[in-house]
Amino acid sequence: MVHVLERFADTARRVVVHAQEEARALEHGHIGTEHLLLGLLRGDTDGAARALDAAGLTLDTARGDVEEFVGRGTAPPGSDKPFTARAKKVLELSLREALQSGHDYIRSEHVLLGLIRETEGTGAQILRRCDVDTADLRRDVMTFLRGPGEPAPETPPLEAQPPAREGPVAERPPETAIERRLSAIEHRLERIERLLRDRPGPGSA
Fold this sequence. Notes:
With 205 residues, the chain is mostly helical. It is built from ten helices and no strands.
C-alpha cells in the first residue's frame, strides 16, 4: 500500500488529504471509498473533478448522500483514520490504471478510474444513486488522460493486469503542507500493516 502512495502525483495526493479532511468533518474513524469520492470532487483535483462535474455530481450532493448512507460518526478529531479494505483496493486499482495507461505516476484521474472499478463500496453506491453513467464517466476520464487523437487502450481483466512495480523514488523538492500530511497518513498505514503482518493468523503455531 505504501509503495502506491509513493507514486502519487500532486493531484492524487490532494485527493487523499481531502478524503482525510472529509472523514474528519463527518467524525468518521476510517477513510472509505465514500471519502475518496468526496476528495475527488474537491475543486483542485484537476480532471477528476471536471469529469465528475460533467457527469452531474456535485460535492454538496455527494456529501449529503454520504451522511445519509453512513451517518455521522463519533471519532475524536485527532484520531488515526485507517483506510478501509475497499478504499485500499481503489488505490491499488488506481496504480493498475496508471500502468495500463503507460504512466509511472498516479493522478487524480487514475484514482477515479479505480473508484469506478471498485463496484461494491459506498462510493460506487453513491455514483449509482446519482445516476452517474460510469461507462461514460470512464470514457471521459480516459479521453482526458490520452489527449486528442490517441486511441483508447483496451482494459484487460484484473488478473491480466501487471503487478505493481517496485522502483526507486525520484528525488523530490521540499515537502509542502499537503505532502507532510500525506506522509503522516503513510506512516500510520505502515504501522497498521506491520501490525497486521506480524499478527499470528488463525491456527498458527
